[in-house]
Amino acid sequence: MSTSAAPIESSALALLALRCPRCHQGELFLYPATNLTKFTDMPAECPVCGQTYEPEPGFYFGAMYISFGFALAIFLFCGIALYYLANDPESWVYVSTVAIISIALTPLIFRYSRAIMLYLFGGTRYNPQWRARHSH
User: Would the pLDDT of 132 be above 90?
Assistant: First the structure.
């Protein structure tokens, strides 16, 4: 886990890189998304600036709604793509395709749902001056 990288100036790019919403340097997750037994593990706080990653108990229950939006997007994309590109195949093809893609993308959906929840509703904004405020 690399935590000494330069901060990412753009909040959108920091979110895509799954970085801390305050310092844009610390990683939000402890292990790579490819580690299927630990892809959900988050530190309690940012390893760089100390920002808490869970503003209140149960905070991430709201991320379920965001992941539902991702699932709906997958369902619609697969349905439309199969209808036009595969000439409206049988129902089992739709179901299988959506199931396989959803399962394959579960680690990313989980992570980005939490990151979006933290960035939008966590009450923390990017602060490039966080070091100066906390060094006194």
Answer: no
